[in-house]
Design brief:
The protein has 183 residues and is mainly alpha-helical. The chain contains eight helices and four strands. It has helices at residues 2-14, 36-39, 72-92, 101-116, 120-123, 127-145, 153-160, 165-181; strands at 45-47, 50-52, 59-60, 63-64.
Length: 183
C-alpha cells in the first residue's frame, strides 16, 4: 500500500499540490482475521512523511462505516440527530405556534424523513436498522398528531397518511434500481 501512496505523492508533486497526513485516515476491511500488526497498531502508512491515522469508523460521502459494514454505527448517529430534530417538532406543536397538522407533517417530511431517507439502500442491509428508525418515526408522528403513547402504529400512519419508514425505504430503493440499474 505504501507503494501506491508514493505514486499519489508523485502525482501531487507533479501538479504542485500537497496533502496533510493528519487529514487522511485509513481502515482495512477483511473477511478473514485481522493481521496482528494491524490490530496492535504497529502497521503505519505515510504520505509526505506524515503518518496516516487509523480510523475505525471512517465517514465516506456522509456515511459512517463500521467494522462489519452493517451500518449500525451510521444508524445510531442518524437516530441521535433525529432525536435532536424531534425537539424542534415538539416546540412547533406548542399551542402558541398553532400550526396546522398539515404544516407540521410538511415540517416532519423536511426535517425527519429526509434525514432518515439518506442512502436508503444501506438500511436494507440490516432490518434492525429500519426498526430503530421506525421507532423515531412513530414518536415523531405521535407528537405531531398529539396522540397518546398507547395509540397503535397503524392508526397513527392512517391519520397522518404517511407510509411507514420500512415501506418508504423499499419503494425508494425500487425506484432507484429501476431508474439507474435496470436501464
Amino acid at each position: 500500500m505504501q507503494r501506491y501512496l508514493k505514486s499519489i505523492e508523485d502525482w501531487f508533486n507533479k501538479w504542485r499540490k500537497t496533502k496533510a497526513g493528519k487529514k487522511c485516515s485509513f481502515k482495512i476491511y477483511s473477511k478473514g482475521p485481522i493481521p496482528k500488526e494491524l490490530s496492535s497498531g504497529e502497521f503505519k502508512l505515510f504520505i509526505f512523511n506524515e503518518a496516516i491515522p487509523v480510523n475505525h469508523n471512517p465517514k465516506y460521502l456522509g456515511i459512517n462505516l463500521d467494522r462489519n459494514l452493517n451500518f449500525k454505527y451510521h444508524t445510531e448517529l442518524v437516530r441521535e440527530k433525529l432525536f435532536k430534530l424531534l425537539n424542534i417538532i415538539k416546540c412547533l406543536t406548542f399551542k402558541k405556534w398553532s400550526l396546522s397538522t398539515e404544516r407540521l407533517i410538511n415540517v416532519y417530511k423536511v426535517l425527519i424523513r429526509s434525514t432518515m431517507e439518506y442512502v436508503p439502500q444501506l438500511l436494507l442491509v440490516n432490518g434492525e436498522n429500519i426498526e430503530r428508525l421506525h421507532g423515531v418515526q412513530y414518536k415523531a408522528l405521535q407528537i405531531l398528531l398529539k396522540e397518546s403513547p398507547r395509540c397503535s402504529n397503524l392508526f397513527i400512519h392512517h391519520l397522518s397518511q404517511i407510509e411507514t419508514i420500512h415501506d418508504r425505504i423499499y419503494s425508494l430503493s425500487e425506484k432507484y434500481f429501476e431508474k439507474n440499474i435496470l436501464k
